[in-house]
Amino acid sequence: MRARAIAVVSLCIATGGIVFSGCGNDSNDGNDSASTTTTQQSDGGALEIRMADYSFAPKDATATAGQVKITAPNDGKVVHELVLLKTNSDPGSFEVSGGEVDEKALEESGTEIPGEIADVPPGKSKSVTVDLTPGKYAMICNVPGHYERGMYGTLTAK
Fold first, then answer.
1. 34-68 pLDDT, tens per residue?
2. pTM for this entry
3. Could you give the CA distance from residue 31 to residue 154 in angstroms, rounded to a whole number?
4. Higher pLDDT residue, 110 or 36?
5. Mean pLDDT of the chain, nearest integer
6. Are 87 and 100 a contacting pair, CB within 8 Å?
7. What's the whole-number mean pLDDT along residues 18-42?
8. C-beta separation of 34 from 59 below 8 A
9. Is 140 exposed, middle or buried (0-12, 13-18, 19+ CB in 10 A)?
10. How far is residue 93 CA from its own chain's centroid?
């Protein structure tokens, strides 16, 4: 397993750091926490955010402003989603009611929701193309209970 991990890290370094998904810990300790590594969007306006059970990888992503196709493969064992919120707020600071962040209340208070990839089954992947304006975004999984378990991160559009 150590040789495989070294090969994966070498591959990540060789790709110039375009996408770091899959370059994390390969242990089976039950903890699927996301990488905190920032990834730069690849050419062509595409960005991959991998979902695991209660984490995003990368947890903190960077993209070029404009039209971006975000693909979200679900590597977990349960359904997940990725909701983008344009906000300067800490992504872990949203109020929760009934296990969910109230997206409607956020929109009514002026928070823009430029896109969502809803209900991605385990082992599947979905995409959405969004128009990102420069600034900070929160990424959250708003499946009941997932946000409270730490399934959130950031996306910065430059």
1. 344 445 454 458 999 999 999 999 999 999 999 99
2. 0.74
3. 20
4. 110
5. 81
6. no
7. 39
8. yes
9. buried
10. 16
Residue 7 has pLDDT above 90, yes or no: no
CB 1 within 8 A of CB 26: yes
How many angstroms separate the CA atoms of 100 and 148, rounded?
A: 8
Query: What is the total residue count of the chain?
Result: 158
What pLDDT, on the 0 to 100 scale, is given for residue 39?
Answer: 53
**Which one has a higher pLDDT value, 141 or 7?**
141
CA distance 97 to 108: 16
Pick from 21, 41, 50, 51: nearest CA to 147:
51
Q: What is the pLDDT of residue 127?
A: 98
Rounded Cα–Cα distance for residues 152 and 69 (Å): 19
| 3-state secondary structure labels for all residues of the chain | CHHHHHHHHHHHHHCCCCCCCCCCCCCCCCCCCCCCCEEECECCCEEECEEECCEEECCEEEECCEEEEEEEEECCCCCEEEEEEECCCCCCCCCEECCEECHHHHHHCCCEEEEEEEEECCCCEEEEEEEECCEEEEEECCCCCCCCCCCEEEEEEC
